[in-house]
Specification:
The structure holds two protein chains of two kinds.
Chain A (H helix, E strand, L loop, with lengths): L1 H6 L13 E3 L6 E3 L19 H21 L3 E5 L3 E4 L1 H10 L3 H28 L8 H15 L4 H12 L1 E2 L3 E5 L1 H19 L3 H13 L1
Antiparallel strand pairs in A: 1-2, 3-4, 3-6, 5-6
Chain B lengths: L3 H11 L2 H4 L5 H20 E9 L11 E4 L2 E11 L6 E8 L11 E5 L2 E3 L2 E3 L3 H4 L2 E5 L10 E3 L13 E8 L10 E4 L2 E6 L3 E2 L6 E8 L10 E5 L4 E5 L2 E5 L3 H6 L2 E5 L12 E5 L2 H10 L6 E7 L11 E4 L2 E12 L2 H4 L5 E8 L1 H4 L7 H14 L1 E7 L7 E7 L17 E2 L9 H14 L2 H19 L2 H21 L2 H26 L3 H21 L2 H18 L2 H20 L1 H27 L3 H46 L1 H31 L2 H5 L2
Parallel strand pairs in B: 1-9, 2-8, 10-19, 11-18, 15-19, 20-26, 21-25
Antiparallel strand pairs in B: 1-4, 2-3, 3-4, 5-8, 6-7, 10-14, 11-12, 12-14, 13-14, 15-18, 16-17, 20-23, 21-22, 22-23, 24-25
Helix pairs in contact in B: 11-19, 12-16, 12-18, 13-17, 14-18, 15-16, 15-18, 17-18
Amino acid sequence: MVSMASSGTSQNILSARALGIVACQRCTKAAPLGTRTCDRCGHKLQSRDPMSLQRVWAYWFVGLLCYIPANVYPMLKTQTLFSTDESTIIGGAVELAHHGAFGIAAIILIASVVIPLAKFWAVAYLAVSVTQPTRVSNQRRQFIYEIVEYIGRWSMIDIFVVAILSALVQLKTLASINPGPASIFFALSVIFTMLSAQAFDSRMIWDVQTKRDSAT
Amino acid sequence: MTQELPEVSVSPTRKVFLSGASVVWIIPLLALVAALFVAWQSFNARGPLIVIEFENGSGIKASETELRYRDVTVGVVEKVGFSEGLERVTASVRLDKEVAPFVDAGAVFWVVEPEVTAQGITGLSTVLSGVYIEASWDDFPGPAANRFQGASEAPLIRPGQSGLEIAFRTAANGELTDNAPILFKGIEVGRVGRARIAPRGNFAIVEALIYDEHRHLINGSTRFWDTSGFSVNIGPAGAEIDFSSIATLVGGGITFDTFVSGGGVVQDGTVFDVFPDKESARNSLFNASAVDPLQISVIFDDNISGLAVGAPVELSGLKIGEVESISGLVNVDQFGDSRVRLNANLSIQPARLGLPGDVSAENALTFLESRVVAGLRARLASASLLTGGLKVELVMVEDAPTARLRDDGTNLPVMPTTKNETSDAAATVEGVFTRINNLPIEELLNSAITFLDSAEYLISNEDLLNTPADVRGLLGELQGLVSSTDVQNIPVSLNATLVRVETLVAQLEQERVAAKLSAALDGAASAAGAIETSVEGVPALIAQIEAVAAKAETLAVDELITELTALTQSVDRVVGTDDAVALPGSLKRALDEVNYTLQELREGGAIENVNQTLASARNAADSIAVSAQDLPQIVDRLTQLFAQASRTIQGYDKGDQLSRSVQDALRDIQKAADALGSLARTIERNPNSLLLGR
């Protein structure tokens, strides 16, 4: 898929559908259009997934819904002997910046705010772009889609850090770090964004191209 | 296959909305429902917001400080701000919904902070966790209120806490300690709240709580007294320090006892007097009449010191009450000037007046009013010449200016006054003290010190110490004189001379010159007489020595020592003179000369020389005679002197006793000097002690 995207520079790409073929999405075996199941792996064959966009949007909304409490509620509960500190994602980054740790603040902001938001935007854009005419080339949109797919798993790095800290810093009353409610919502948000991106049937990108081409 | 294609592309768009929808939409719907439910629930569970006003913030933090009821968190401070005009600090507290109905107008809020008092340390947990707001309310829901005044400290009686609620009032001259425990046999059975001063300022009042399980200890005849501080009693049984516990020593406390039985049941709100000590508490029980005392005030124009709280108020010499409080008073409107006057509040016991009919404060007031019209006045009089204390006397004054017992209803009735009768005992006492102060104590002490110094110098004088040695030396010299070979040889020489004289006389007889010899012998006799007179001084000297010795024996020791010294010196001089030493030598030489002359006479036989020779012989013979006569005497005298000296030495041996006596005497003197010295130092440190006598 990746090699296909990077190598696809030609303006007129012939789709499998136009050739009357449907490819199995699990084992990539080609079959004539209309075949219900792949005779090699038994996977259901669909030339285009008509529910794809609905699933994309459904997951997208859940992801966005979860992203709100992820930012409102505290991510980390830091308990020391004298005080309990609860910091949200943005609050923590701002606090770090106040202490002069601009680098770490930037990493947190990028990993936890910019990238998730960019993902939301990218998925939404792709979902819209397959139904609306767009100026961006199919290759570029395919590239965006691949980035979103690729980056999705790394978004869990926040949760990973929180999990490690919570496991390590448990010194009874002296100091302890516990995950806040935001961590769950953040994880949910990431999961649903990934599901949303996966639900997107990237073949539709090329259908639009075809439409436009046929229109013009 | 290709024919089905249009069906596939068309049919989803034509279908009903729901049938084309993916099942996956259930997920966002569920999420939405869940979110809405959570939102609704949290909104629903949110209690009302109340505002509590405090004097200061004292560590209250937004979204951190908790509101607790019976130490359970029932709310959180959401916001800390100021009331209008920055007068007070407001804390907005979000209450839990379940307790909200109970938070009515009777709720009390206060901030719990760490506090260290004599009774202990409280609120220690807040050192780490920060302060919290403690609340207290009763068990019944009431109309909601949302604005409260925070108390500055925890209330004594919290709603729901049962116990006997009473109040304490200071008795005359008494004190109150607030927040003190009420102890009974060392057990805390109650607690005293924050004391306050009565509106008229004549006593302090405080509310107190006796815990429920101990309320049966209190009845109508229970008397309370203050156990704060300690008391020192010095009596025949020795000194006695009394305090009930360290806590009450520092922080004060109140204890009580029921001295007699039969007191009625005490209701909430009863006011008890707190007495200064157990004695007065006990006495009050037996002395107290059942009537409230009549309070009147007297304003004296002069500022007279010596009137103390508790001073007696007398009517015709009978004590009818006492001074309850004294204060200054400045009232330009009433007196026309701004001088400070002395305002004394008197507490008069109506029962002492012996009024007919109903014994009450009103009756007593009516009685006094009528007497004042007749001329009864108050005045200050000396209660004691020694202490200078004053008392208040109510006396009848003839032709007094008209006056009335003023009673305007709000203040105490005011008794008119007359001229004070105070003696100037204070002045006299002061004069005495001044005179004592002027005594030349310093000079006296200095003289004493100088005297003691001189005595010490005299006793340790070296001359005095050396006297016995001198006496011993004198005696040694005397012994040496007596035992000298010259003196011992005198009889031998005499013997020889007499032998020669004998032979000479025999020769003279032979030569028949007896007549001349007779004349020569006459001359010799007269010469001997002359010699006798010339040595008369020696017996006188010896007599003098004897007298001195006798006198020395009778003299006191110190005089004896001086006399001895003088005697020793004079004897020394006499013995040491060359003449005395040379005396035996001269005698010998004279005899030798006689001897030589006789030899010449015998050998030469020249008659003409005989006269001369005889003259010489006469002299020599006279001298010899005198010497021979006086020698036994001298020996006797010497013997006496020896005896005398021996006695003196014996007497001096007794000097051991003497010196012991002297040492004892010196030690006594030393002690006396030490005592004087310490007295001097004491006086130097604290001159007042001389005046005050301690």
